[in-house]
Amino acid sequence: MSLEVSSSALARCAVHPEMSAAGTCSRCGGFVCADCVKVVPGLEGRMFCAACEARPEVNYLEAFRLEFWGRRDRWAWTVGLVSLGLLALGLVSALDPRAPTALRLLFAFFAPVPVGVAFFLGRSWARHALLATPVVMAVLLGPDSREEVSLVVVCAVPALITAVVIHRDVRNRLFFRRDVTPGELQALWNVRRNNPLARHALSFGLSGVFMPVFAPLAVLCGAVAWRRVDPEAHPPIGRGGQALAGIVLGVASLLLWGFVLLSFLNRFLSGVVVHK
Ligand SMILES: [Zn+2]
Ligand SMILES: [Zn+2]
Fold first, then answer.
1. Radius of gyration in angstroms for the set of CA atoms belonging to the chain, rounded to a whole number
2. How many A from CA of 148 to the centre of ligand 1?
3. Distance between CA atoms of 160 and 102, rounded to whole angstroms?
4. How far is the centre of ligand 1, averaged over its atoms, from the C-alpha of 13 (Å)?
5. How far is the CA of 70 from the centre of ligand 1 (A)?
6. In this structure, which ligand is nearest to the CA of 15?
7. Distance, CA 49 to ligand 1 centroid (Å)?
8. Phi/psi at 36 (5° precision)
9. What is the mean pLDDT of each run of 10 residues along the chain (276 residues)?
């Protein structure tokens, strides 16, 4: 009597032996159950196991995330430089012998410096402390008169809004090694890597309507960006609509401004003829 076992009965998930496999990983060939199957953006239709899905050579978003993981962004540099400026301002006021500065004013200048330095160095607590900094500075400045209060509010509110924007910024969160959702990562990738030339083509096209010098740039960028569009590529390259809009706007602006120039020349030349 031969012992026959059907192949489907043998195929079990590598992680969950109690589950039968739904298929095999496209990269390593391991069996995966329905719960373990991962789909990689841009490679829909292929199955991956969890380990392979997280590999940068498979998942372009993962590669993109690793590229910025712990890497200082422009916000870190901005906060660092502003702190340096406040330190310099505080020192200059403190060392000015002609006009002694009130102690609370010096506190207001120096208090944010450690936060700014820690932020620049990527210390996690500084991310949250930055939110409180504008409020702390406003309190330390201790405005007395009505005018002073309005001045402090006018400065503190934009600073607070900026601090909130920085706190939520996906690129900055990657610098601080905070997890970001796949959707947020995809949005950042879209801005940075998904055919940015097409975006430039569109903005050149819009500028070209008012300033004709941008119109040829719009056509040029639009044409190059249009050639790059490839929805089948991995990762998919899009923004065909923006590239096309840039070309159309560029050509339309050139025609419009050409027409304006011609009619101007025509009027000018006919004026010259009449004067003769
Ligand atoms: Zn695998
Ligand atoms: Zn499984």
1. 30
2. 63
3. 24
4. 11
5. 27
6. 2
7. 4
8. -90, -15
9. 54 91 92 90 84 86 92 97 92 77 78 94 96 90 82 90 96 96 92 92 94 93 95 86 95 93 88 64
Tokens of 227: 């050639």
Residue found by looking up tokens 């000018």 in the block: 268
SS3 state at 25? coil
How many angstroms is it from 130 CA to the middle of ligand 2? 43
ipTM of this complex > 0.90?
yes
Phi, psi of 130 (to 5 degrees): -60, -30
Q: What's the gap in Å between 12 CA and the centre of ligand 2?
A: 8
Exposed / middle / buried, residue 40 (Cβ in 10 Å: 0-12, 13-18, 19+): buried
CA 253 to chain CA mean position, Å: 30
**How many A from CA of 184 to the centre of ligand 1?**
25
Token digits of residue 83: 């702190």
